C-alpha cells in the first residue's frame, strides 16, 4: 500500500515537536520560519468620486442643494471630494447650502464658510475628537468642547490680573454655557479660553504705549461683533430646539391618540370619559410615553393592551372608592355622634366602625340616596330595642366565630373552641397582653387604625374617617403560641384543674410564686396567672434561658388561705397606685362613659355625680381600668436558702381566726 510523502513529512515534523504548543517553532527551524504578514484590507474606490467627472457647473448645482451637515459628511468621504469642497472657488456652494437653513445667522467675518458650518452642525469635541452628550459649543470662542476638555482649556481668571480695561476683559471668549458678567464667581472673574487670553496679553505688551488705546478700541469693536453674533446663534439654537420639541410633541400626541382609540376599542370608553385628572389618563402612562417615542406599530399597540387594561381597572377602582368616600364620610361621622350618645353605661359595645359593619346598619345608611340630606332621623330605627339587641348579637357572634377560627388554625380543627375554657387564651402583638373572651371583644389594639390598599372600600374609609379599623384588621389578635399554651397547661396542672374542662374563673382563684425570683431584701415574687405567663415568656425577663424542666419547676402555686391574703393586698396596692400615679392608662366611668386618666379624679366624679359612696373597680361595676397585667407582688417575709420562710407569719386582724393554725408553715 502506497503512502503520501507529504502527509508522512508533516507527521514526522509533528512527532519531533512532541506535545508542545504550536505558537513557537523549534529552535533548529527557527531561522527558516517566517510569520505571514497580515494582509491589508483592499480599499474600495470611492463611489462618489465618480461625480467629479461631471461638469463643474452641474457639480456646484448639486452640492448647493445639500444642507451643511451633508456637505461636511461629503467632504470626509475622500481626499478628492475634500479638496474640491474646501476649494476657495466653491464658496458660493457653501453660502447657498447655509441659506437653506431657515433662521441661521449669517457667517461671521472671522470664520470661513466650511468652518462656520462645522461649528454649527458638527458634533465632536475640537480638542479630543470625541462625540458624546456632554459636548457643548462656545460661540464666543468659536470652539466645541466636552466637559473634560473645557475644564483643561478654560480657566477662571480675574480682571485684576489683566493689563487692559475691564470692558475688554468682559468680552473674552468664555467656556460653553458660561454666562459672562453675572456668574456666581462675580463680575470680576471669568472662565475664559486660556490660549486666547494669553495671546491677547502678549499682543497688548508687544504694542507701543501710544498705540494701546486705539488697539483696545478696535478689539472691543471686533469682539462686540463676535458676542452679538454669538447671541444670535444661541437664540437660533434655542428656537430650533423649541421647534424640534414642538414637532416631537405633536408626533407623540398623534401616537397617543392612537393609544386612546385602542383603549376605547377595549371597552373603556365610558370610564375614559369620567377621568378628571390628566395624569391618570392612559396616554400619559410611562410605558405609553416610552412607546410613543418610537414608531407605533400594530405590534407595539398590541403589547400595550395589558398595561392599559390594568391601568383602567385601577382607575375605575379609584373612582369608585372616591365616590364611596364622598358618600360615607359625613354619614359615618353622624353615626358616631348618634351611636355614642345613646350607649348605656357599663355595657360592652362595638366601635363605630364595627357597628357600621353590621349588615343591618350598613344597609340602613346605604338606603338613603345621596341626592338628599342625611340626618340623625334616618338613624332612629337603630334604637328599636329588638333591632339593637339583634345587632349586638350579630356583632358578638361574628367575632366569636373569628376567635374560634384562630384557635382551630393554631391547635388544629379537632381542638376545643369553647371560649369559656381556660385554654381559650389569646395574645396581642401590639401590647403583649394575654386576652380572653369577652374582654377581647373591645380590646383597643384590635381597632387601631390600619390602612390596607387591598382592603375593601368600607374598611379603608372607616380607617380614614373614624381613625379606627374593623376588629382585628391589623392581625394583632391571635391564639397563643405553643410555648404559651404549654405553660398555661402547666399552671392548670399546678392548680389541680383539668385543662380540657377548667374555666378562666377557676384559674383566677389561684396565685403563683416564682422561686428563683425570691429576694431577701424585697421578698417573695407572687403573681397572677397572666403575670406568670409574661414573667416566664417575655424575652426581657430573667427566665428566658431556662430549659423546660427548670422552667416548670421554678413556679409553684400558693395555698388557698395565703392566696386570699395576697389578693386582698394586691387590690389594695392597685388602688393606692392608681390614686398616686395618674399615668396608669385610660379609665372609664361605666355610668356615663366619661374617660379620665387620673383615678382619683374619676373616683371623685363617681362619688359626687353618681352618688356612689365607694366606687367599685371592674367590668360591669362603676370604674373600668384599661390597665396592663397586674404586676408582681412582693410577699414578706422572703424565703431562706433552704426554702423555708425566714420567720413565722403572724396573722392579725380579720384573718387571725381563719389562719391561726398557719402561724408556722412551709410552702
TrEMBL record:
Q: Boundaries of each F-box domain copy?
A: 48-97
One family from Pfam that matches here is F-box
> Which InterPro entries does its entry note?
F-box-like_dom_sf (IPR036047), F-box_dom (IPR001810)
At the top level, the lineage of the source is Eukaryota
The annotated region (Disordered) lies at: 18-38
What is the protein's name according to its record? F-box domain-containing protein
Its source organism is Hebeloma cylindrosporum
Read off the lineage from the record.
Answer: Eukaryota, Fungi, Dikarya, Basidiomycota, Agaricomycotina
Amino acid at each position: 500500500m502506497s503512502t503520501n510523502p507529504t502527509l508522512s513529512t508533516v507527521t514526522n515534523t509533528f512527532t519531533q515537536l512532541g506535545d508542545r504548543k504550536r505558537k513557537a517553532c523549534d529552535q533548529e527551524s527557527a531561522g527558516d520560519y517566517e510569520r505571514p504578514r497580515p494582509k491589508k484590507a483592499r480599499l474600495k474606490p470611492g463611489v462618489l468620486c465618480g461625480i467629479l467627472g461631471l461638469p463643474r457647473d452641474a457639480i456646484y448645482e448639486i452640492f448647493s442643494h445639500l444642507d451643511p451637515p451633508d456637505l461636511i459628511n461629503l467632504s470626509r468621504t475622500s481626499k478628492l471630494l475634500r479638496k474640491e469642497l474646501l476649494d476657495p472657488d466653491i464658496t458660493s456652494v457653501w453660502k447657498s447650502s447655509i441659506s437653506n437653513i431657515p433662521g441661521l445667522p449669517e457667517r461671521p467675518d472671522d470664520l470661513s464658510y466650511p468652518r462656520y458650518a462645522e461649528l454649527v452642525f458638527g458634533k465632536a469635541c475640537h480638542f479630543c475628537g470625541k462625540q458624546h452628550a456632554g459636548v457643548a459649543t462656545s460661540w464666543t470662542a468659536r470652539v466645541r468642547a466636552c466637559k473634560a476638555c473645557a475644564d483643561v482649556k478654560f480657566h477662571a481668571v480675574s480682571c485684576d490680573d489683566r493689563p487692559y480695561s475691564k470692558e475688554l476683559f468682559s468680552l473674552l471668549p468664555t467656556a460653553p454655557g458660561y454666562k459672562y458678567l453675572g456668574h456666581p464667581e462675580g463680575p470680576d472673574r471669568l472662565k475664559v479660553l486660556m490660549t486666547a487670553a494669553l495671546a491677547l496679553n502678549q499682543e497688548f505688551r508687544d504694542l507701543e504705549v501710544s498705540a494701546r488705546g486705539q488697539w483696545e478700541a478696535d478689539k472691543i469693536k471686533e469682539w462686540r461683533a463676535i458676542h452679538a453674533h454669538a447671541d444670535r446663534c444661541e437664540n437660533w439654537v434655542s428656537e430650533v430646539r423649541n421647534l424640534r420639541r414642538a414637532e416631537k410633541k405633536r408626533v407623540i400626541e398623534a401616537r397617543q391618540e392612537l393609544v386612546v382609540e385602542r383603549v376605547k376599542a377595549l371597552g373603556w370608553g365610558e370610564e375614559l370619559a369620567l377621568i378628571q385628572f390628566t395624569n391618570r389618563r392612559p396616554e400619559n402612562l410611562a410605558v405609553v410615553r416610552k412607546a410613543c417615542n418610537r414608531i407605533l406599530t400594530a405590534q407595539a399597540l398590541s403589547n400595550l393592551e395589558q398595561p392599559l387594561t390594568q391601568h383602567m381597572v385601577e382607575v375605575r377602582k379609584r373612582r369608585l372608592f372616591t365616590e364611596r368616600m364622598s358618600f360615607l364620610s359625613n354619614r359615618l361621622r353622624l353615626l358616631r355622634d348618634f351611636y355614642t350618645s345613646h350607649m348605656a353605661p357599663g355595657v360592652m359595645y362595638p366601635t363605630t366602625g364595627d357597628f357600621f359593619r353590621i349588615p343591618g346598619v350598613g344597609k340602613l345608611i346605604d338606603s338613603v340616596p345621596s341626592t338628599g340630606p342625611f340626618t340623625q332621623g334616618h338613624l332612629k330605627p337603630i334604637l328599636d330595642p329588638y333591632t339593637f339587641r339583634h345587632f349586638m348579637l350579630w356583632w358578638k357572634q361574628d367575632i366569636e366565630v373569628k376567635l374560634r377560627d384562630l384557635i382551630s388554625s393554631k391547635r388544629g380543627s379537632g381542638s376545643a373552641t369553647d371560649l369559656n375554657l381556660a385554654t381559650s387564651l389569646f395574645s396581642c402583638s401590639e401590647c403583649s397582653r394575654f386576652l380572653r373572651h369577652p374582654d377581647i371583644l373591645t380590646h383597643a389594639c384590635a381597632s387601631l387604625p390600619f390602612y390596607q390598599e387591598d382592603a375593601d372600600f368600607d374598611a379603608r374609609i372607616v380607617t380614614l374617617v373614624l381613625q379606627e379599623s374593623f376588629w382585628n384588621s391589623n392581625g394583632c389578635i391571635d391564639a397563643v403560641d405553643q410555648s404559651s399554651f404549654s405553660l398555661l397547661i402547666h399552671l392548670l396542672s399546678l392548680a389541680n384543674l383539668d385543662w380540657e374542662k377548667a374555666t378562666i374563673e377557676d384559674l383566677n382563684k389561684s396565685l403563683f410564686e416564682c422561686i428563683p425570683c425570691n429576694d431577701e431584701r424585697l421578698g417573695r415574687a407572687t403573681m397572677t396567672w397572666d403575670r406568670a405567663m409574661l414573667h416566664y415568656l417575655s424575652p426581657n425577663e430573667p427566665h428566658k434561658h431556662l430549659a423546660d424542666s427548670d422552667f416548670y419547676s421554678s413556679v409553684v402555686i400558693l395555698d388557698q388561705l395565703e392566696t386570699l391574703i395576697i389578693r386582698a393586698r394586691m387590690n389594695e396596692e392597685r388602688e393606692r397606685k392608681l390614686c398616686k400615679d395618674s399615668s396608669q392608662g385610660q379609665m372609664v366611668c361605666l355610668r356615663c362613659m366619661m374617660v379620665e386618666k387620673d383615678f382619683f379624679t374619676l373616683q371623685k366624679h363617681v362619688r359626687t355625680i353618681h352618688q356612689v359612696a365607694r366606687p367599685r373597680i371592674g367590668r360591669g361595676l362603676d370604674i373600668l381600668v384599661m390597665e396592663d397585667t397586674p404586676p408582681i407582688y412582693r410577699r414578706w417575709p422572703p424565703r431562706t436558702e433552704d426554702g423555708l420562710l425566714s420567720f413565722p407569719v403572724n396573722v392579725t386582724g380579720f384573718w387571725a381566726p381563719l389562719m391561726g393554725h398557719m402561724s408556722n408553715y412551709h410552702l
